[in-house]
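User: Structure please.
Assistant: Input sequence and predicted structure:
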Amino acid sequence: MYWILSNELVDEDNDADLSGEANFELGDTISFKRGVTVSDLLISKITLILSNDSYIGRMTDHLSITELYGFVFSEKLRGLLQGLSVDNIQYFDLDIVNKKNGISYTDYKIGNIVGLVDCINKDLSDVEYFNDGGIEFIDKLVLDETKIPSELKKFRLLNRTTLTFVHQSIKDAINESDITGCLFYKPEEYQV
């Protein structure tokens, strides 16, 4: 079974809700949402200067940052994923700087998930598409797991690349550890 790993806050009252200005522009040629490898030569260390209205609550292992279109993972979460042989994530250095208190967080990286999979069971799902084939609305999403390569434990959905799926083994390992900030949805119960 596969689960959607959301970029939503788990605890809206206590988890860090961050926004700010990054020192780079991805532009049209570089994207963390396309599911393809990005050249390391095009991106140096990324610095995010937090805005004054960022809520600096609990810095979780999986952060949600509006301006960054990749997943933001702590060293602890990256170690867990590497221990599970998840090898289709490309990491980029990230410094998160809070100018109000002078603290910099340097153990986070942006994760570019490489791999797009077309695995929607169109007969059992209730989705509406844009003219270009991308998914606009989801009322019910059912995956055809026979279309998912067995070696992929984490991937993006071809028709909605903002949705990231993780294998049951990853969800279980995260829930059994002290990893924070990960919110999972059953695909059948996810709506957008």
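The mean pLDDT is 90.
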